[in-house]
TrEMBL record:
<comment type="subunit">
    <text>Interacts with SYT1 in a calcium-dependent manner.</text>
</comment>
<dbReference type="GO" id="GO:0006836">
    <property type="term" value="P:neurotransmitter transport"/>
</dbReference>
<feature type="transmembrane region" description="Helical">
    <location>
        <begin position="321"/>
        <end position="340"/>
    </location>
</feature>
<keyword id="KW-0968">Cytoplasmic vesicle</keyword>
<keyword id="KW-0325">Glycoprotein</keyword>
<dbReference type="Pfam" id="PF23894">
    <property type="entry name" value="LD_SV2"/>
</dbReference>
<feature type="region of interest" description="Disordered">
    <location>
        <begin position="109"/>
        <end position="128"/>
    </location>
</feature>
<dbReference type="InterPro" id="IPR020846">
    <property type="entry name" value="MFS_dom"/>
</dbReference>
<keyword id="KW-0813">Transport</keyword>
<dbReference type="GO" id="GO:0098691">
    <property type="term" value="C:dopaminergic synapse"/>
</dbReference>
<keyword id="KW-0597">Phosphoprotein</keyword>
<feature type="domain" description="Major facilitator superfamily (MFS) profile">
    <location>
        <begin position="154"/>
        <end position="722"/>
    </location>
</feature>
<feature type="compositionally biased region" description="Basic and acidic residues">
    <location>
        <begin position="113"/>
        <end position="128"/>
    </location>
</feature>
<protein>
    <recommendedName>
        <fullName>Synaptic vesicle glycoprotein 2C</fullName>
    </recommendedName>
</protein>
<dbReference type="GO" id="GO:0007268">
    <property type="term" value="P:chemical synaptic transmission"/>
</dbReference>
<dbReference type="GO" id="GO:0022857">
    <property type="term" value="F:transmembrane transporter activity"/>
</dbReference>
<feature type="transmembrane region" description="Helical">
    <location>
        <begin position="635"/>
        <end position="659"/>
    </location>
</feature>
Length: 772
């Protein structure tokens, strides 16, 4: 009795062991079959133009796995690293699938029509669906990568590029007074220097923004910053005014791509819950660039002793040293950018799966090591990529020469940029583009218009004070005299000078009108803002002077001689401290935006982008009415600081909203277009507000107030991107989501089933294993 009981017990134990082993082997066989199918799909994507050589390595539609394959046949590179029970290590890289791998597995069951039989509308519809799925998955991946050392390193690298843009805006205004004197720029041509830089930035913003959506954020930013640095450095050495304008035009063209590319680049490595705050902190580098330019101008330009000359034709003055120093942030950003990777979001958008996965893993590992968790693995194995739509390029027959090929390539890229730009006006982003256009134009018009109007009003107030201090000498006659001192702030009208000697005289802001110089001598004379209008020179000698022809306006010379005349305009006054005041005013105006930057960064994700945008623009418009009380220089400087502090919050929130409202494939293009519009509005504002300085004060105030308030009200109608910030998904919620997906549809078997009846457990992506 006991022996029979023991026999039954042993039999039941053996049966259980056999069942356990069968189940283990079944799991192993199914995994190997899935691995072979996955290898076949991957191989098919990489050798799409080759015929299939081995028909026994996969299972066509209608056949099932018979369980008799050799165990070694299921091995592949994709499953390298499995243990003896063929279990997958957590975070093990299974190989990025091809962009159509998931659809290939469905084709093996249902056999839908291929891409070659679909029209472009169907393909674009599928791509939009893929992009929506990628956007949701990418947000979860960025959350898993975390925010840490990588983002902060990229923050400082891109901040240097943004700092270079801020420097470029200020550098022209700072060097203009000295450049006008050194390059002998007439008053009629001085306005071109400021306008030409904005023209270059306007074209550059549109071009480089569109190129960033074609070739990548890093590549576009590297090229545009290199162009800016090269021509900014070259402009410090040129002597002619025309060549100097040309260099500053190309320098502005290069730096124009910094803002759209920098914000698009940085936004794509940030989770939505941190995007508003950290993009606002990034905006501070533009302010730092303005402070850097003001401080360097204050320290360098007034020191005229920091110069050298090669004869009288080549002069290298301190303002040229300042131009070189201002190019350093650009050079630093180019060097640092070479060590940073491309945006993984852009790589996924163009179908470069492997590169994107490696960069995301780099971000994850860098942040985890900085947190002291190097053992934490990157658990993402598969990444969704949008369907790639081939673009047909018309190749002409005459493309054998290199310049023809370059021409076709450039024309194709420009046409691609234009097509991407036109897509910014397609549904569903068309309404957002129109509203953003209004907000960008009104904010730029009001901000840059008043920014030019403030200094001009201050200069107007200074000129009124100067008119009170200017000494007017009229209808007098001097004979047999000698002058060797400085003459400053004087107007001589109807004077007669006979046998006079001007030896070593420094003329500063002196004007001679309707005067006669007879038998006079000008020797070792230097001049600044000095002109002879409708004067007559008889038997007069000019020796070693800097009197250029443009300083003699409607003047007449009779038997006069010029010896050792200095060519080029000269900057020789070491006691000219008026520049200090200009740089100090700009320094205060730039520093005033620091509180606004801090407030916008801290409150961006709390009160919302639109509330900050509309509120800041409306408050800026209201603050313009305080300009009625600006009757002195100190009061106007105070109004300037208040105005800059209020508008900076609007700029920061507008940058964030613009980045978040455009999809990845047209983000930089849309941003570049709006930034180009910003520069056009700035030029228009400069012209309109500048012409009204000496006429009236009420029209600029009312105009700026109206456009700012209207723009703020339109900005409140934009979609609030803060509501799109998702909550952080926990690993448990992610597993529950995977189970729900598993119970509804399986990509491998192509059927709807239930966990209890089917016995198959699906992960988030097309890889099925038998449930244990």
């Amino acid at each position: 009795m006991e022996d029979s009981y023991k026999d039954r017990t042993s039999l039941m134990k053996g049966a259980k062991d056999i069942a356990r082993e069968v189940k283990k082997q079944t799991v192993k066989k199914v995994n190997q079959a899935v691995d072979r199918a996955q290898d076949e799909y991957t191989q098919r994507s990489y050798s799409r133009f080759q015929d299939e050589e081995d028909d026994d390595d996969y299972y066509p539609a209608g056949e099932t796995y018979n369980g008799e394959a050799n165990d070694d046949e299921g091995s592949s590179e994709a499953t390298e690293g499995h243990d003896e029970d063929d279990e997958i290590y957590e975070g093990e890289y299974q190989g990025i699938p091809s962009m159509n791998q998931a659809k290939d597995s469905i084709v093996s069951v249902g056999q839908p029509k291929g891409d070659e039989y679909k029209d472009r509308q169907e393909l674009e519809s599928e791509r939009r669906a893929d992009e929506e799925e990628l956007a949701q998955q990418y947000e979860l991946i960025i959350q898993e990568c975390g925010h840490g050392r990588f983002q902060w390193a990229l923050f400082f690298v891109l901040g240097m590029a943004l700092m270079a843009d801020g420097v470029e805006v200020f550098v022209v205004g700072f060097v203009l007074p000295s450049a006008e004197t050194d390059l002998c720029i007439p008053n009629s041509g001085s306005g071109w220097l400021g306008s030409i830089v904005y023209l270059g930035m306007m074209v550059g913003a549109f071009f480089w923004g569109g190129l960033a959506d074609k070739v990548g954020r890093k590549q576009s930013l590297l090229i545009c910053m290199s162009v800016n640095g090269f021509f900014a450095f070259l402009s410090s050495f040129v002597q002619g005014y025309g060549f100097f304008l040309f260099c500053r035009l190309l320098s502005g063209f290069g730096i124009g791509g910094a803002i759209p590319t920098v914000f698009s680049y940085f936004a794509e490595v940030l989770a939505r819950e941190k995007r508003g705050e950290h993009l606002s902190w990034l905006c501070m580098f533009w302010m730092i660039g303005g402070i850097y330019a003001s401080a360097m101008a204050w320290a360098i330009i007034p020191h005229y002793g920091w110069s050298f000359s090669m004869g009288s034709a080549y002069q290298f003055h301190s303002w040229r040293v300042f131009v070189i120093v201002c190019a350093l942030p650009c050079v630093s950003s180019v060097v640092a950018l070479t060590f940073m990777p491309e945006s993984p979001r852009f790589l996924l958008e163009v179908g470069k799966h492997d590169e994107a996965w490696m960069i995301l893993k780099l971000i994850h590992d860098t942040n985890m090591r900085a947190r002291g968790q190097p053992e934490k693995v990157f658990t993402v194995n598969k990444i969704k990529t949008p369907k790639q739509i081939d673009e047909l390029i018309e190749i002409e027959s005459d493309t054998g020469t290199w310049y023809r090929r370059c021409f076709v390539r450039i024309r194709t890229e420009l046409y691609g940029i234009w097509l991407t730009f036109m897509r910014c006006f397609n549904y569903p982003v068309r309404d957002n583009t129109i509203k953003l256009t209004i907000v960008w134009f009104t904010l730029s018009f009001g901000y840059y218009g008043l920014s030019v109007w403030f200094p001009d009003v201050i200069k107007h107030l200074q000129s009124d004070e100067y008119a009170l201090l200017t000494r007017n000498v009229q209808r007098d006659k001097y004979a047999n005299f000698s002058i060797n001192f400085t003459m400053e702030n004087q107007i001589h009208t109807g004077m007669e000078y006979d046998n006079g000697r001007f030896i070593g005289v420094k003329f500063k802001s002196v004007t001679f009108k309707d005067s006669v110089f007879k038998s006079c001598t000008f020797e070792d004379v230097t001049s600044l803002n000095t002109y002879f209008k409708n004067c007559t020179f008889i038997d007069t000698v000019f020796d070693n002077t800097d009197f250029e022809p443009y300083k003699f306006i409607d003047s007449e010379f009779k038997n006069c001689s010029f010896f050792h005349n200095k060519t080029g305009c000269q900057i020789t006054f070491d006691d000219d401290y008026s520049a200090y005041w200009i740089y100090f005013v700009n320094f205060l105006g730039t520093l005033a935006v620091l509180p606004g930057n801090i407030v916008s960064a801290l409150l961006m994700d709390r009160i919302g982008r639109l509330t900050m945008l509309g509120g800041s623009m409306v408050l800026s418009g209201i603050s313009c009415f305080f300009l009625w009380f600006g009757t002195s220089e100190s009061m106007m400087i105070g109004m300037l600081c208040l105005y800059n502090g209020l508008t900076i919050s609007a700029w920061n929130s507008l940058d964030v909203v613009t980045v978040e409202l455009y999809p990845t494939d047209r983000r930089a293009t849309g941003f570049g277009f709006l930034n180009a519009l910003c520069k056009a509005a700035a030029v228009l504002g400069n012209l309109i507000f500048g012409s009204l300085v000496s006429i009236t004060k009420s029209i600029p105030i009312l105009l700026a107030s109206t456009v700012l308030v209207c723009g703020g009200l339109v900005g409140l109608r934009l979609p609030d991107t803060r509501t799109q910030v998702p909550y952080k998904v926990t690993p448990r919620e992610r597993r529950e989501k995977a189970e729900v997906l598993a119970s509804t549809q399986h990509l491998l078997c192509g059927s709807h089933c239930d966990l209890q009846t089917c016995g198959v457990f699906c992960l988030e992506y097309p890889l099925c294993i038998l449930s244990a």
